[in-house]
Amino acid sequence: MSVNPMIYETQFFGFTPQTCLLRVYIAFQDYLFEMMLVVEGVMLKKLDGTPGCKISPSQIRKCTEKFLLFMKEHFDKLFSKMEEVLLQLVLNIPKNVLLPEDRVHEQYSYSKEEFQALQDELQQLQQQCRAEAAAEQALRAELEEQKAVKAELEKILQCFDGLENICREHGAGNFKESFALLTQSSKKLQDVLRDVEEKSRKMKQHDQSA
């Protein structure tokens, strides 16, 4: 059998030409074996009804096997020629013939250099797409962070609004002014606290020295 892969023919037929010929060869061979068995059976019946026949069934079987071997050798030679003819003239697609699904390659043909340039351009576009996807992901993360900060700011504003309402209910006037006074008072308290702590530390040192 031919070892040529015949890929284009396989694409067109849906099977390899070698596989087709192998099945044909096996079918002819099986038919030859069956035919020999039929001939052998007929000969056995004829000889069985002939009086004084000295040919035994084993001798007939030997003769059948020899004839079968002779037929198989000639059949192999004939089939080899038939295979060559079929592969060249029947199951072969000429080099100048394009299948309908491959016509696009003829219309848009590219050299190796042009194909490589397209590959390089495709790779660059893929890198750009990955970079844009990463940037989009970073922007989405930043947007989520801004949303979280905005939510916290809104809570703080709500808290200030609540404090301002409380100040108004208790006649404290403007919340901003009250908050400024509260800050100044807090600073004064912190200064007094530091002064008390400093005096306490000095008194402890005096007691320990005494």
Automatic annotation (TrEMBL):
GO terms for biological process: cell division; kinetochore assembly; mitotic sister chromatid segregation. Keywords: Cell cycle, Cell division, Centromere, Chromosome, Coiled coil, Kinetochore, Mitosis. Pfam families: Mis12 (PF05859). The gene is Mis12. It is found in: Chromosome, Centromere, Kinetochore. The keyword Cell division applies. GO terms for cellular component: MIS12/MIND type complex; nucleus. This is Protein MIS12 homolog. Belongs to the mis12 family. It comes from Malurus elegans (Red-winged fairywren). Residues 108-156 form a coiled coil. It comes from the Eukaryota.
